[in-house]
Amino acid sequence: MPFWTYILHCNAGVFYTGHTDDLDRRIADHKAGRFESFTKNYLSVELVWSQEFATRDEAKAAEQRIKGWSRKKKLALIRGDWGEISRLAKSKSSPSTSSGQAGVSVSLALLTQLGAEARAAAPRECCGILLGQGAEVTAIQPAANAHPQPETYFEIDPQALVDAHRAARNGGPQVIGYYHSHPNGEARPSATDQASASGDGRIWVIVAGDEITFWLDQEGGFCPLSYCVVPA
User: Fold this and answer.
1) Is the bond into 93 cis (omega within 30 degrees of 0)?
2) In whole angstroms, what is the distance from residue 59 CA to residue 51 CA?
3) How confident is the model at residue 95 (pLDDT cuts 50, 70, 90)?
4) Among the listed residues 50, 58, 45, the one whose alpha carbon sits nearest the alpha carbon of residue 15
5) Fold of the domain spanning 93-230
6) How many beta carbons lie within 10 A of that of residue 71, not counting itself?
7) Which pLDDT score is estimated for 17?
8) I need a surface site. Which of 106, 161, 163, 184 has the fewest CB within 10 A?
9) What does the alpha-carbon distance between residue 147 and residue 22 come to, in Å, rounded to a whole number?
10) What is the structure's pLDDT at 24?
11) Can you point out the beta strands (E) in the chain?
12) Is the pLDDT of residue 204 over 80?
C-alpha cells in the first residue's frame, strides 16, 4: 500500500505539508474544508508537490523534515531544483562546508528512510550499510545491531556485512559505507566511533534527531562531507 507526502499552496501564499495513504481523497477533503485544521482557514488550496513512499513511517518522516525547511527550500523542492536544495542544505551545515571534500549524492527518499530507521530503533542505535557507487548512495540496507549494549553502541550484524560484500562481488551495488544513529547524542562521530574507525575511506552517516551528517573515514580521523540532494 503506497503512502504520499504532499505540499499544498494555500490562500495568502502559505504552504501546508502533510502525508496520507489516499492522496486524491485527502486533497479533495482539504479543498472542501472538511478538516478542522490549518488549511480550513486558508482556502482555497492547491496541490503543488507530492512524492510516493513505501511505508507510512517514511512518508511521515518526510513530512516532518519538509515542515522544518525554509520557504526558499520548499519552493526549490516544488520546482524540482535539486541544486538549490543542496546549496541551501550546505549553507546550514558549517562542518560540511568547511571540509573541502567532495560531496555525497543522496536522494530525499533515502534521507527520509535514514531518519525513519533512527526513530523506529530508539532508544537503541540503528545501524546498516550504505550501498552505491563512488560517492553516490543509491540504497541503504538496514541491519540488526548486534552489540550487547545497543542503547549506546552499535555493531552491524556480521552476516549482513558478509552478504553485502558477496553481493557486491557478484555484480551488485558496492558497499560504500555505513550508518548508525545517536539517540541521545550529536550527529557527529563519538569517541567510540573514532576508536572503532578503520580509516578505510568509506562513508559514515550519523543520524541524531532531525539532523543527518556525512563523514569520510580516513587515516587520521573522520572528515565531514557535504551532501547533494538528488531526485530519487
Assistant:
1) no
2) 8
3) very low
4) 45
5) Cytidine Deaminase; domain 2 (3.40.140)
6) 10
7) 92
8) 184
9) 40
10) 94
11) 3-10, 15-20, 45-53, 104-107, 127-133, 136-143, 174-181, 203-208, 211-218, 221-225, 227-230
12) yes
Contact 223, 216 (CB under 8 A): yes
Q: Cell digits for 72?
A: 526558499
Mean pLDDT of 171-185: 94
pLDDT of residue 92: 53
User: Which CATH fold topology does 3-80 show?
Assistant: GIY-YIG endonuclease (3.40.1440)
On the question of pLDDT at 145 being above 80, the answer is yes
Q: Beta 211-218 vs 221-225: how paired, if at all?
A: antiparallel
Cβ–Cβ under 8 Å, residues 98 and 221: no
Q: Examine the pLDDT at 3 and tell me if it is beyond 90.
A: yes
Residues of the chain with CATH 3.40.1440.10: 3-80
Whether a cis peptide bond, with omega within 30° of 0, leads into 158 is: no
Asked if residue 137 lies in contact with residue 112, where contact means CB atoms within 8 angstroms, the answer is: no
